[in-house]
Each structure stands twice: as structure tokens, then as C-alpha cells.
Design brief:
Length: 207
């Protein structure tokens, strides 16, 4: 698909779905009140709206390489995920945050295999320094499962847990979770078999 195809898609959308839901769109024009935020990977195969059948206005989504949440950092850097999280939690007052991992994740694989180690920004370095958020999890996973398919699956799951732990380093998240106003969830969508596995306690179970 190229931009020309996207425009064709837009014309179809404008002539059908948009027409059918005109009222809903004019309602949405006055504001949004999604109840759940989803943090997913940028990977083209794992669009949360597609997987969950969500309509415009229903889920607040941030996507990045390997669906990661960095820890709370007050270091003068520009924090896209933290900004979106702050907006969703403190302004939109979402009730739930879901970290959605996925199978065959290239970002996770780059971390697992260290394929981008020692690269410069622009040559893989941006990705390398982003996915090094998983370095501690990687060590644990490699020791137990190696760097093959089992390790890949394990690191995809561990990565979700790391992001959930990092979410709790944001004071505005922690206080709401402890007050019962915000729930955090983790899940991994397999792609291969279309299975969603949801984090229950410490393990991922078929949904
Ligand atoms: Zn991915």
C-alpha cells in the first residue's frame, strides 16, 4: 500500500463508514472519553483497533518499537510515551492501561540477539538505545531460554512485564492504581495463531 492507496481507502471510508456514523463523528468532534489506553508496537501487523474491534473514540493508543514504557525520568528529555501516558491518565482519566506485546516482534528480536549493539543513531542506534530498556529482562531470558524462538517468546512476555513495572514508577499512575482508580493489564498477541494471551498474576493465559 502506498499513499495513493490510502487516499483511495479514504474515499471509500468517507462514502460509507463515515456517512453511516455521521452522528457519532459529530459527537466525537466535541471531545473524546476513551476508557482504556493501549500501548502497542508500531509493527504494521498489530493494530489494536483491528485486533480488538475498537471504533474511533474508544481506545487511546500509543505505538512504538516493541511496545515499551520507559521509567519515569525527569531529565529534560522529550518523552513521547510519558507525555501520552500523562495525558491519558491525568486528563482523559482512562480507567485501564493495557500493554500489548506481540509475536515475531523485530524490536524484541534485536534486543534478544543484540543485532544492533554498538550502532550509531541513524544506523540502528536509536532503536538499540530504546530497546536496551529490556537489557535486564534479556539477561534473565537468555540464561533460561537462549536466543532462539523460546527466548523470543519469553522476552516478548517479559517485555510486557517490564513496561508494567515501569508504569508504576510514574507517581500519577502509582497513586491511582493504589487507590483502585486505574487498572494495569498485559497481553501478547501471537500473530501466528491469532491468539491473545493475557497476563494473569505472573503467567500469560489464553484469552
Ligand atoms: Zn514489535
Amino acid at each position: 500500500m502506498h499513499f495513493s492507496d490510502l487516499k483511495e481507502g479514504y474515499y471509500r471510508f468517507r462514502g460509507t463508514e463515515w456517512q453511516q456514523e455521521r452522528e457519532r463523528w459529530s459527537e466525537l468532534a466535541t471531545g473524546q472519553s476513551p476508557k482504556v489506553m493501549v500501548i502497542a508496537c508500531s509493527d504494521s501487523r498489530v493494530d489494536p483497533a483491528t485486533i480488538f474491534g475498537a471504533r474511533p473514540g474508544e481506545i487511546f493508543v500509543v505505538r512504538n518499537v516493541a511496545n515499551l514504557v520507559p521509567p519515569f525520568e525527569d531529565d529534560g528529555g522529550r518523552h513521547g510515551v510519558s507525555a501520552a501516558l500523562e495525558f491519558a491518565v491525568t486528563k482523559l482519566e482512562v480507567e485501564e492501561v493495557l500493554v500489548l506485546g506481540h509475536g515475531a516482534c523485530g524490536g524484541v528480536n534485536a534486543c534478544l540477539t543484540q543485532s544492533l549493539a554498538n550502532t550509531k543513531p541513524g544506523e540502528g542506534g536509536f532503536v538499540a538505545h530504546w530497546i536496551d530498556l529490556l537489557d535486564d529482562a534479556r539477561e534473565k531470558v537468555v540464561a533460561e531460554h537462549g536466543t532462539g524462538p523460546e527466548g523470543q517468546k519469553a522476552l516478548e512476555q517479559e517485555g510486557v512485564k517490564v513496561s508494567l513495572q515501569n508504569l508504576m514508577t510514574f507517581p500519577f499512575v502509582k497513586e491511582r492504581v493504589e487507590a483502585g482508580k486505574l487498572k494495569l493489564h498485559g497481553a501478547v498477541f501471537a500473530i501466528e495463531d491469532g491468539r491473545l494471551r493475557v497476563l494473569e498474576g505472573d503467567t500469560f493465559e489464553n484469552a
